[in-house]
Amino acid sequence: MFEETILSRRLVPAFKPKFHRVMKQAQRFSMVSKKRMQSLWRLLCRVERDRVPGDYVELGAASGGTGLILCAHARDATLERQVWMYDAFEEFDPPSAVHREVHDLLFEVNGFDPGRVHLVKGFFDATVGGRPPRPIALLHIDASGYEAVRCGLDLLESLVSPGGWLVFDNYGVDEGVRRAVHESLAEEAREVRLKRFGHTQAYFQCALVLRTGEAE
Ligand SMILES: C[S@@+](CC[C@H](N)C(=O)[O-])C[C@H]1O[C@@H](n2cnc3c(N)ncnc32)[C@H](O)[C@@H]1O
């Protein structure tokens, strides 16, 4: 039912057949529910439709599920887009995934171009700032806790292109995530319309394309 709603929106028809293929594989490697992954895909399609320039960036890759969605979408995008996936992998306590396995999933199983997909191991505060300052079309923050989310926002929010999207999984279930998002918005005095998808996911569009309060 939900899937039909997404597809009926006619967001970039050329992407439809791939949507099913990608989702099937991504589900096997993700902690994120199918519906939230569909919501993420829909936002990527909006970025594509609106020709928002920039890369796709993910903080919290784990086993690579949602990252696969970003990579598959970027591969066929009409604008040149790179994908940046960050995670501490084995350094995190407890570790959620093994870096080598995610590397193989991306580059050997799926054949993504290592010149355009970057899998970066390490804690966000040590790695994310080292990224070249390229514009971002969609920033997916899928980590828990105030520090991790705040670090991502402090380092990357200013790179998100007008019309680009910031997506937070864990928003509904983690008080630290909510605090980081709200503090950051308040400090920037940003008036955005924070939208919810289900209980867990929240997202907003970066300035100016939608006026505050305008319906999606
Ligand atoms: C909820 S999981 C990501 C789920 C993934 N997107 C998926 O599709 O299943 C959160 C991940 O964030 C990573 N993480 C959390 N805090 C981090 C930090 N400060 N630096 C680096 N990685 C972090 C963890 O290692 C974990 O793999």
Helical content band: 25-40%
Structural category is: alpha/beta
Ligands in the structure? S-adenosylmethionine
What is the ordering of alpha helices and beta strands? Answer: HHHEHEHEHEHEHEE
Quaternary arrangement of the chains shown? single chain
What does this structure look like?
The chain has 216 residues and is α/β, with parallel strands linked by helices. The protein has a single domain (53-205), classed as Rossmann fold, CATH 3.40.50. Helix content is 40%, strand content 18%. It has eight helices and seven strands; from the N terminus they run H-H-H-E-H-E-H-E-H-E-H-E-H-E-E. A seven-stranded mixed sheet has the order 3-2-1-4-5-7-6, with helices on both faces. The structure holds S-adenosylmethionine. S-adenosylmethionine is lined by residues 30-32, 60-63, 65-66, 87-88, 92, 96-97, 123-124, 142-143, 148. S-adenosylmethionine binds at residues 30-32, 60-63, 65-66, 87-88, 92, 96-97, 123-124, 142-143, 148.
Topology:
Layout: H1 2-8, H2 16-28, H3 34-49, E1 55-59, H4 65-75, E2 83-87, H5 99-109, E3 117-121, H6 124-127, E4 136-141, H7 146-156, E5 160-168, H8 175-187, E6 195-197, E7 201-205
Parallel strand pairs: 1-2, 1-4, 2-3, 4-5
Antiparallel strand pairs: 5-7, 6-7
The structure holds S-adenosylmethionine.
